[in-house]
Amino acid sequence: MLGNEIVLVRHGDTEWSSSGRHTSFSDIPLTDHGRQQACTLATRLADRQFALVLSSPRIRAVETCTLAGLRDAAEITDDLAEWDYGDYEGRTTAAIREERPGWTIFTGGAPGGETADEVGERADRLIARAAAVDGTVAMFSHAHFLRVLAVRWVGLPVVDGALLVLDTATLSVLSYEREQRAVRVWNS
Question: What does the pLDDT look like over 34-76, one tens digit per residue?
């Protein structure tokens, strides 16, 4: 895939994302604002040709993909699902830190959820899949997972995903600087 790109698309706003609640397996739809954000993505993606379009199975990602105009071309894959927060599903970081001061998903994990290694393995599978494609790939997913995907793309450990911020309905582009994997655009 040398020279091609992976376009990462975070889903639009949901009630839980705007309130800071961790959302992995709960199927929370987009808000009206989130649907407007997703429609704006359609304009930003209109000039691109994609050899492969992948989406998380969660309604918020699928709806974003649909409103961005790419659902007909999209394949749904569990590999793009958000980090499984287990017992922390639906809770805010502040509430979790009352029990576990300084907690982050990247360093503290979640009881009953995925480990950082498991999430990293999913990201690595997607990177290998994208690398085998002749052309640009679009991936519709979620904040924590896309942060992991980006750091794995450049060879960093999963924990370094904590260094990246990713807002709703944003585009990021993983590409190359000559032959070196690089992040070309982030949180745009």
Answer: 999 999 999 999 999 999 999 999 999 999 999 999 999 999 9
**β-strand 171-177 against 180-185: which pairing, if any?**
antiparallel
Domains observed in the chain:
6-185 (3.40.50.1240)
The answer, as to whether pTM is greater than 0.85, is yes
With tokens 């809770």, the residue in question is: 91
Active-site annotation holds for 82:
yes
Indicate which residue of 5, 11, 63, 144 is catalytic.
11
- Tokens coding 74: 């999209």
* Catalytic member of 5, 22, 63, 82: 82
In sign, the C-alpha dihedral spanning 131, 62, 73, 39 is negative
Q: Which residues contact 129 (CB under 8 A, 6 or more apart)?
A: 52
